[in-house]
Each structure stands twice: as structure tokens, then as C-alpha cells.
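ok new one. same drill as before - C-alpha cells go in, u give me an amino acid for every spot. 290 of them this time. try not to just spam alanines like last time pls lmao
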């Protein structure tokens, strides 16, 4: 299914809304909407897709997503297997676009906030102390009422707009080309890859999921995501490999094959192309200070 334009007006009746999510796994589809969204993952792990950016997420992940930017969170495989010890928990803040842009930005001294909102068109991941502090404030928002709640929201926006500890996610030339006349395919393809990346994925099978010919599917996927289909598959595999490399009792060869690669040569090549390091160097860096 393609990312759908979701109108939040039927729920976002105020200037902003706070939503607490607690479930066995995140069930959102790949979608976009007209408003701003701050997502704090309290407990969970998996792959996050924002625009043309694919990355692993884990506890304390904090991102800001701007209007009309496609996004989705997909959990690791074990979350869908009924393990009662695994939960997907998050706090999501929806901020009305018209309120922020037409009213808040008219206030004096909002230059930094304006820059933050411009950055959000590419998706922003926050790091370090800012992420920790915002996590505390966001988690307490639902316990606040009235002006106190609004004050805390403005405090969150202030910290996010002033911190230097952030990363822009999509490529600078990313453009959302989706519209409501597109056929509903891409989400099904994403789900197929998430469930099958550890085995061999054939282009014919992915095209069949999208109900397209191979050539048409390749053009469609490249047009919608601005990347080659197998590059996307390898991004998912390398993200999984990075997670496995954090476990000291798993050898690099085992990481290779459990991540869906058929040879160490291909694994090493794509790992370095995507992360900039070899698997061995990546693991050494992980455990340098442990």
C-alpha cells in the first residue's frame, strides 16, 4: 500500500494532541499527513522509514516529521511472534500545521523554531541530552492540563529548536511524489521485505506483491523511493546486521547469513558501502569503551 494522506482533523481538534501507544507491535502503515509529528519511542526496536531514509530504531528514539513526509515504523520479526515480554511503546505529539505556521511563528523570537520546522521537511532525529530531556517532558504531557500542558509543549519546541544534537534524515533533494491516485502497493512491498529479508528475495516475488511486471515495478519503486529496490533490501539487511553485531556471542559469519546475505564477500561489500566501516571495525567500535 502506498503511503496514504491521512487527515488528522477528525482527531486533532485542538492545536496539538498527545497520543500514548502501547501494543505488541507498531501497526501504523506507511503514510503521511498535513501536520507536524514528534515521535518518541519509549520501548521497541525495528526499522524506521522516513522519506527515502531507512534506519534502525530502538528505545529513546526521537524524531520530528514534517507535513506530507511519508513515514512508518516496522518492528523486528520477534515482535510479531506473540512474545509477551516485548512491547511497542511510544509517545506521539501531533501539532497542527496551521497553528504553528500561521500563529506561533508570528510571535517574536521564533527564528530558530522556523528553521526547525524547515528542517522537519526532511525529518529530524535528535540525539544526546536533548533527546533525554525531551523524552522526560513528552512522557509527562498527558498528565498535564490547560496552560501547564501548553507551556511544556513550548518548552519542547524551544529545546528542539536550540539543540545542535540532531541529524537530518532524508536526502536534500527528496520529493514526495505520492498522490491519492496512486495504486496502493508500496506498504505491501515494505511488509514483504521486513518479513523476508533474512532469506533470498527475488525481484519477481516483490513485483508480484505489487501486482506489477518486473520492469514496471523497478521503475515504480525507484520513482517513489528514489532508490533501487535491492539497495533498499540491503539497507534493511545491514540494519539488522548492525543489531546482531551488538551481541558478542554471534560470529560475523553467522551475522552475515542471518541477515540474508549469501556470501561474506557481498556482506562485507554492502556493509562498508552503507556504514562506512567493515563489520569487524564496526563491532570493535561498539565495544571499545565496554
Amino acid at each position: 500500500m502506498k503511503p496514504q494522506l491521512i487527515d488528522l482533523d477528525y482527531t486533532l481538534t485542538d492545536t496539538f494532541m498527545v497520543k500514548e501507544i502501547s501494543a505488541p507491535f507498531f501497526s501504523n502503515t506507511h503514510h503521511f499527513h498535513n501536520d507536524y509529528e514528534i515521535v518518541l519511542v519509549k520501548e521497541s526496536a525495528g526499522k524506521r522509514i522516513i522519506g527515502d531514509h531507512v534506519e534502525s530504531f530502538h528505545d529513546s528514539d526521537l524524531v520530528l516529521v514534517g507535513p506530507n513526509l511519508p513515514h512508518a515504523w516496522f518492528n523486528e520479526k520477534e515482535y510479531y511472534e506473540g512474545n509477551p515480554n516485548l512491547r511497542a511503546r511510544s509517545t506521539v505529539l501531533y501539532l497542527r500545521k496551521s497553528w504553528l505556521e500561521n500563529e506561533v511563528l508570528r510571535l517574536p523570537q521564533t527564528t530558530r523554531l522556523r528553521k526547525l520546522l524547515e528542517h522537519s521537511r526532511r525529518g529530524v532525529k535528535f540525539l544526546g541530552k536533548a533527546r533525554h530531556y525531551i523524552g522526560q517532558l513528552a512522557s509527562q504531557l498527558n498528565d498535564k492540563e490547560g496552560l501547564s500542558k501548553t507551556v511544556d509543549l513550548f518548552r519542547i519546541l524551544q529545546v528542539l529548536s536550540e539543540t545542535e544534537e540532531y541529524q537530518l534524515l532524508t536526502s536534500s533533494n527528496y520529493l514526495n511524489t505520492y498522490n491519492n491516485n496512486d495504486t496502493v502497493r508500496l506498504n505491501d512491498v515494505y511488509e514483504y521485505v521486513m518479513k523476508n529479508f533474512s532469506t533470498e528475495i527475488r525481484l519477481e516475488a516483490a513485483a508480484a506483491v505489487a501486482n506489477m511486471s518486473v520492469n514496471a515495478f523497478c521503475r515504480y519503486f525507484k520513482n517513489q523511493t528514489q532508490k533501487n529496490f535491492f539497495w533498499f533490501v540491503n539497507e534493511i539487511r545491514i540494519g539488522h546486521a548492525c543489531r546482531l553485531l551488538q551481541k558478542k556471542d554471534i560470529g560475523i559469519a553467522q551475522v552475515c547469513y542471518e541477515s540474508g546475505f549469501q556470501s561474506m564477500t557481498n556482506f562485507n561489500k554492502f556493509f562498508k558501502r552503507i556504514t562506512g566501516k567493515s563489520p569487524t571495525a564496526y563491532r570493535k567500535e561498539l565495544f571499545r569503551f565496554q
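DSSP finds eleven helices and eleven strands in the chain. and btw The chain has a mean pLDDT of 88.
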